[in-house]
């Protein structure tokens, strides 16, 4: 087993991922290397349309340019440790990174297309009490290219059946806004029509509520779908579920949400996990309706996945519908998330926690 020091040394000597470069950055690098900047589009075509894994395969580039690319960058490859396939078509991947750490990526099949849920960090420091992703804490942030590589890897698997990734959700392991700059580069790269060409309105990013970054993200004026992991209608319950609420309390979070909606004109989604006996009573639904009254928003109710390392239990089916009905009667736009991957390690971080215990202690 590699030591942490060895992993750190490997990480330091690893060349930057070329997947981390936005198109304008690649053009700038080419200019500095004495090359024609139009080569950037050719390189992007090889990376994202042809999906090659070696600079040598970029046959319309000079040998000298290929050598320069090889010396400066790596094409990030992810090693598939485990691939679980659900009866509903959901596929969960446990990928190994160059330094031996592991991450999860999930492919979900819908009537409207294939959606992929990506990871932004190895582990997580936010400490939500219901989430397996936070077990063992945060190991490191991912480079933008390591996030992009997840989409490319899954797309290569879909190439075999002439399918494509049609939407992306950033809801895997980690807090996206805790790795803000790399996440933002990732968004711009996959959205680029020269790259993976995934439309902004087919991309969703979710945060647990890092308030300053919500204001910053609003000012980016991107047409990305935005979700808040809310999970509670008041400060007391939210702080017990999500320690981040002690740093950024619910009133401050709601002010940031209002700013986002006013600045972008876009609807926001609230993710609300239902935890048996904790936040799933009718009075909680009524309190939630009052909290978000007047906001351009949608509530996504999530029946909790059981995580062995946590003690939460599932809300009874009838109670879930009663909670939904209470919100609807209060004029709230609400849906119950369709469950996928129920027969595999579906909960975020669960597969990694089970298979990579040395990372999640």
SSE layout:
Layout: H1 4-13, H2 23-32, H3 39-49, H4 63-72, E1 79-85, E2 91-96, E3 102-110, E4 113-117, E5 121-123, E6 138-141, H5 144-159, E7 165-170, H6 180-191, E8 203-207, H7 211-220, E9 225-229, H8 235-241, H9 244-247, H10 250-264, E10 268-274, H11 282-291, E11 297-303, H12 317-329, E12 334-336, H13 350-355, H14 357-360
Parallel strand pairs: 4-7, 7-8, 8-9, 9-10, 10-11, 11-12
Antiparallel strand pairs: 1-2, 2-3, 3-4, 5-6
Helix pairs in contact: 2-3, 5-6, 7-10, 11-12
Enzyme class: transferase
Domain Radical SAM core: 110-343
Binding site for [4Fe-4S] cluster: 124, 128, 131
Overview of the structural elements:
This protein is α/β, with parallel strands linked by helices and 361 residues long. The chain folds into two domains: 22-72, DNA polymerase, domain 1, CATH 1.10.150; 79-356, TIM Barrel (Alpha-Beta Barrel). Helix content is 38%, strand content 19%. It is built from 14 helices and twelve strands. It has helices at residues 4-13, 23-32, 39-49, 63-72, 144-159, 180-191, 211-220, 235-241, 244-247, 250-264, 282-291, 317-329, 350-355, 357-360, and strands at residues 79-85, 91-96, 102-110, 113-117, 121-123, 138-141, 165-170, 203-207, 225-229, 268-274, 297-303, 334-336. A ten-stranded mixed sheet has the order 1-2-3-4-7-8-9-10-11-12, covered by helices on one side. Helix 7 (211-220) links the parallel strand 8 (203-207) and strand 9 (225-229). The longest helix is centred in the middle third of the chain and has 16 residues, at 144-159. Its main location: cytoplasm.
């Amino acid at each position: 087993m590699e030591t942490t020091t060895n992993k750190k040394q490997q990480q330091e000597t690893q060349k930057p991922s070329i997947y981390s470069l936005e198109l304008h950055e690649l053009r700038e690098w080419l200019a500095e290397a004495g090359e024609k900047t139009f080569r950037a589009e050719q390189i992007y075509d090889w990376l994202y349309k042809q999906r090659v894994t070696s600079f040598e395969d970029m046959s319309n580039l000079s040998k000298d340019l290929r050598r320069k690319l090889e010396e400066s960058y790596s094409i990030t490859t992810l090693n598939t440790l485990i691939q679980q396939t659900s009866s509903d078509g959901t596929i969960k991947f446990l990928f190994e990174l160059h330094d031996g750490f592991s991450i999860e990526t999930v492919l979900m099949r819908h009537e409207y297309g294939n959606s992929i849920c990506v990871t932004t960090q190895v582990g997580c420091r936010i400490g939500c009490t219901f989430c397996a992703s936070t077990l063992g804490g945060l190991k490191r942030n991912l480079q933008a290219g390591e996030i992009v590589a997840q989409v490319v890897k899954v797309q290569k698997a879909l190439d075999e059946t002439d399918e494509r990734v049609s939407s992306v959700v950033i809801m895997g392991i980690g807090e996206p806004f805790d790795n803000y700059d790399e996440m933002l580069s990732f968004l711009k790269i996959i959205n680029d029509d020269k790259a993976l060409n995934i439309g902004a309105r087919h991309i969703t990013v979710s945060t647990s509520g890092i308030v300053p970054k919500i204001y910053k993200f609003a000012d980016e004026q991107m047409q990305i779908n935005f979700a808040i992991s809310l999970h509670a209608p008041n400060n007391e319950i939210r702080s017990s579920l999500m320690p981040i609420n002690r740093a950024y309390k619910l009133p401050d979070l709601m002010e940031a949400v209002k700013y986002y909606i006013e600045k972008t004109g876009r609807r926001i989604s609230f993710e609300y996990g239902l935890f048996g006996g904790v936040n799933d009573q009718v009075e909680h639904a009524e309190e939630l309706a009052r909290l978000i009254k007047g906001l351009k928003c949608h509530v996504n109710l999530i029946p909790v996945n059981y995580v062995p390392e946590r003690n939460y239990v599932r809300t009874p089916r009838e109670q879930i519908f009663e909670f939904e009905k209470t919100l609807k009667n209060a004029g709230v736009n609400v849906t119950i998330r369709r469950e996928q991957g129920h027969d595999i390690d579906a909960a975020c971080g669960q597969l990694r926690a089970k298979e990579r215990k040395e990372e999640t202690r």
